[in-house]
Design brief:
209 residues; NADP binding; Dihydrodipicolinate Reductase, domain 2; 8 strands; 28% strand; eight-stranded mixed β-sheet; alpha+beta
Length: 209
């Protein structure tokens, strides 16, 4: 997207981008596999591998070539520049059962008979990471993942800063680029446009790419 399309690269930095949100969530719990999951938790199971891979692809500099070694080297540079996390940067949790659900949906994590009693292993995690380099200084990369959520979703949301010099009385919403990985790959950009008609009303529209 970025390296093959000139229109995106000039805005791919802290001057234009306010935040990057990387999400992975599943609509089901451990489904009787809690004993296995409890050894690792959601951070080791999803965040430290899958989500950090996505973060490094979004944030890396242009590699010398498209060869795996060159791409890996740029990704490693990003990971080395991530600042150490503080406790205030992290939110952890466990899913509870849905009394109106069916089957395993009624069971919370601690109600899974394979999960050790009193386990504090997180099934949900959110972490706000900062990349200490010139391109991304001050831009939070928010990683969140969890089980037992409302739906299945894996996506990246790149949110841009507000438009400077607003002349629309605060009506414009921030532009967003959304890269959906699951379910069904998609790429679209949220932007403000004038509504059809003679009045000067604005509305948020999506440019489906």
């Amino acid at each position: 997207i970025r390296f093959g399309n000139r229109i995106f690269n000039p805005t791919w930095n802290r001057e234009s981008i306010a935040s990057v949100l990387i999400t992975f969530k599943e609509p089901f719990g451990t489904q009787g596999r809690g004993g296995y999951f409890d050894e690792f938790g959601i951070i080791r199971d999803v965040m430290q591998n899958h989500l950090l891979q996505i973060l490094s692809l979004v944030a890396m500099e242009k590699p010398a070539t498209c060869q795996p070694d060159d791409i890996r080297n740029e990704k490693v540079k990003v990971l080395k520049n991530i600042r150490p996390l503080q406790l205030s940067d992290v939110v952890l949790g466990q899913y509870i059962g849905n009394p109106d659900g069916e089957g395993d949906e009624k069971l919370g994590y601690l109600e899974d008979p394979t999960v050790p009693k009193g386990s504090q292993t997180p099934t949900y995690a959110l972490a706000a990471l900062q990349i200490n380099n010139e391109r991304w200084d001050g831009v939070p990369f928010i990683l969140r993942c969890g089980k037992g959520k409302c739906n299945l979703k894996a996506e990246v949301r790149i949110q841009y800063h507000d438009v400077p010099g607003d002349i629309f009385d605060g009506k414009p919403k921030r532009n967003e680029m959304v890269i959906r990985v699951q379910p069904g790959e998609a790429l679209y950009v949220k932007m403000m446009t004038k509504s059809p008609g003679i009045t000067f009303d604005m509305e948020e529209t999506e440019l489906d790419l």
